[in-house]
Write a structure and sequence with these properties.
Blueprint lengths: L7 E6 L3 H4 L6 H16 L4 E6 L13 H5 L1 H5 L3 H5 L12 E5 L10 H7 L4 E7 L1 H14 L3 E10 L3 H11 L5 E3 L1 H5 L2
Parallel strand pairs: 1-2, 1-4, 2-3, 4-5, 5-6
């Protein structure tokens, strides 16, 4: 699998304080993600951060959206700036972009696609939390948009280990190349 750094971007998705806090142990995940980010920076591959967040009063949350509307009360009581802050060990470097999305997919309610077109990105390397959330939704949408896809399996996590395993070993392989951060560093 050949990789052209000129048309590749690493998407670091939902690696934010407010989401990682819901997982029991994130040390290995954060360490793997930090390695992947370092590899991307070394290879001059753009690192694009994607976070989920809402405006004050949550006008973006529809009562028709089962998952977000169920959490609306909890979201309303959060300091959204703090919730959206990327984990300090993974923080964006100067000049790296952060995209705010309003739904599960990295594309939904964000300007990600505009940024990717402007940078002529054709290959997305995906990593983030949760495997069954942002990673799954983004793979599906990105595949439909004809992006070439790689998923860094050890840079993804889910609250349900079995769901993570099924997605990374049986489902994602239909649309993406599956690698570890270490394997990706050698390409």
């Amino acid at each position: 699998m050949e990789q052209n750094a000129q048309n590749t971007a690493l998407l670091v998705m939902d690696m934010q304080v407010g989401i990682l806090g819901s997982l029991p142990d994130t040390k290995v995940l954060v360490d793997n993600m930090a390695k992947a980010i370092a590899v991307a920076r070394c290879k001059k591959i753009p690192v694009i951060y994607v976070v989920v967040g809402f405006r004050s009063g949550l006008p973006e949350v529809s009562i028709n959206n089962k998952s977000f509307s169920a959490a609306k009360e909890r979201f309303a009581s959060l300091d959204m700036d703090q919730f959206m802050t990327v984990h300090p060990d993974l923080a964006p470097a100067p000049g790296e972009l952060t995209v705010i999305k309003r739904r599960v997919s990295a594309f939904s309610g964000s300007d990600l696609e505009v940024i990717l077109r402007a940078k002529e990105i054709k290959h997305l390397v995906l990593a983030g939390v949760a495997t069954s959330g942002v990673v799954l939704s983004t793979i599906r949408e990105a595949a439909d948009k004809d992006y070439r896809l790689t998923v860094l399996a050890d840079c993804c996590a889910d609250g349900d280990d079995e769901v993570h395993k099924v997605l990374t070993t049986k489902v994602f392989v239909r649309q993406a190349d599956m690698l570890t951060a270490s394997e990706w560093s050698k390409i």
